[in-house]
């Protein structure tokens, strides 16, 4: 195998596929990147058996072939090269020769026959979004994804598609995050019914590091067990989580005894300041909100000190005193869009529902921390 390609192009491609390379594995081939040269294109592939990423670049291919090289070593070499064109050649002993500018490296490779294939599948349906839209719904939900292996289905985000609506939902047992977008046209093709699939959080985290905050199209192709994201010159494949996702709609409260309209920025700033003195056990140091007489009195007391805040609000309903984990509340507040939000309360031991003042583009639920005076 021998080819010549642009140094910046292969460097960018290596950075993309490295996100699917196993950091440590009993199989050394999984710590590598497969490089395949064919038809004046180079396909670089990373595959840790959970996700697989292919990145395709243009090249001048003199002889076709494939090789697996250690991801970390190859990546560092490519990034450190100073020339503009890289020549890569592999001999019969799998020694990979890298030339660029005044530099020359010989590194040992592994036969590509040992590299596991990324699953190929026929899609039952596909969903088309902009990269910005996908990045947006992930960013507004993934903070609430579960981490417990005993509830594996909750370690992923639920993606729902119906008509021209897309929902993404995450639930971890302490909070819920739901983000909705509406597109100009129907997003789903190849299937007549509503769509729902659960995508692992690792997949979404790595994907959002690659896609741009742009209007560039991304196509999501789905089967019963796998999902494939296609955009620009990248193909990103992942398994799906199997099983029934929690019926999240039953979690969302419908009736409230207290509703507050408040500034998002004021709430975020106040909770951030209260968080400064929370240095150890968060469960024993809730941020307490006392809502009464058109204001929220926020206070927190720990071994490090005490903080008090007042925020003017509009409110309807009963006075209430309720405590929250500061991080859970902050992440929900930071996920809100718009200048103002509604905080909806049922009682001091019931979840708080955060919604926009206009529309229904998001819903965040945060469970409270039981206070000493709660019955």
The number of distinct helices, counting runs of at least 4 residues, comes to 6
Number of strands: 27
CATH topology of the largest domain: DNA Polymerase III, Chain A, domain 2
Based on helices, strands and strand pairing, what is the structural class?
Answer: alpha+beta
Shape label: elongated
Mean pLDDT: 93
Can you tell me about this structure?
With 375 residues, this protein is an alpha+beta fold. It folds into 3 domains: 2-114, DNA Polymerase III, Chain A, domain 2, CATH 3.10.150; 125-248, DNA Polymerase III, Chain A, domain 2; 253-366, Roll (DNA Polymerase III, Chain A, domain 2), CATH 3.10.150. The chain has helices at residues 7-17, 71-80, 131-139, 201-210, 264-275, 326-335, and strands at residues 2-6, 32-38, 41-47, 51-58, 60-63, 65-70, 85-90, 95-100, 103-108, 125-130, 156-162, 165-171, 175-182, 188-189, 195-200, 217-222, 226-231, 234-239, 258-263, 287-292, 295-302, 305-312, 314-317, 320-324, 340-345, 352-356, 362-366. It has a 9-stranded antiparallel sheet with strand order 6-2-3-4-18-17-16-10-14. Strand 3 (41-47) and strand 4 (51-58) form a beta hairpin. Helix 1 (7-17) packs antiparallel against helix 2 (71-80) and helix 5 (264-275) runs antiparallel to helix 6. The longest helix is centred in the last third of the chain and has 12 residues, at 264-275. The model has no long low-confidence stretch (mean pLDDT 93).
């Amino acid at each position: 195998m021998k080819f010549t390609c642009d140094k910046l192009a292969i460097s960018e491609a290596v950075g993309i596929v490295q996100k699917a390379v196993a950091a440590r594995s009993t199989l050394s081939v999984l710590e590598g990147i497969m490089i395949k040269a064919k038809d004046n294109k180079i396909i670089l592939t990373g595959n840790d058996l959970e996700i697989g990423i292919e990145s395709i670049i243009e090249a001048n291919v003199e002889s076709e072939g494939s090789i697996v090289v250690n991801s970390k070593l190859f990546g560092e070499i490519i990034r450190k090269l100073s020339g503009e064109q890289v020549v890569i050649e592999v001999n019969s002993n799998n020694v990979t020769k890298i030339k660029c500018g005044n530099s020359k490296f010989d590194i040992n490779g592994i036969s590509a026959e040992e590299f596991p294939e990324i699953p190929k599948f026929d899609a039952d349906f596909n969903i088309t979004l902009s990269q910005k839209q996908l990045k947006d719904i992930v960013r507004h939900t993934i903070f609430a994804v579960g981490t417990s292996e005993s509830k594996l289905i909750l370690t992923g985000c639920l993606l729902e598609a119906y008509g021209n609506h897309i929902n993404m939902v995450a639930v971890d047992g302490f909070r819920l995050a739901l983000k909705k977008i509406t597109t100009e046209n129907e997003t789903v093709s190849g299937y007549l019914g509503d769509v729902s699939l659960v995508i692992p959080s690792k997949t979404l985290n790595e994907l959002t590091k690659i896609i741009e905050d742009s209007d560039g199209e991304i196509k999501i192709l789905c089967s019963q067990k796998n999902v494939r994201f296609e955009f620009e010159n990248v193909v990103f494949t992942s398994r799906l989580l199997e099983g029934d996702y929690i019926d999240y709609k039953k979690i969302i409260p419908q009736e409230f005894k207290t509703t507050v309209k408040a500034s998002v920025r004021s709430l975020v700033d106040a909770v951030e300041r209260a968080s400064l003195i929370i240095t150890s056990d968060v469960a024993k140091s809730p941020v307490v909100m006392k809502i009464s007489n058109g204001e929220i009195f926020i206070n927190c007391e720990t071994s490090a000190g005490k903080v008090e805040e007042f925020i003017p609000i509009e409110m309807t309903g009963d006075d209430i005193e309720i405590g929250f984990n500061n991080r859970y509340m902050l992440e929900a507040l930071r996920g809100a869009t718009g200048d103002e939000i509604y905080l909806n309360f049922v009682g001091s031991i019931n979840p708080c529902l955060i919604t926009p003042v206009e529309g229904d583009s998001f819903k965040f639920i945060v469970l409270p921390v039981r206070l000493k005076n709660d019955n």
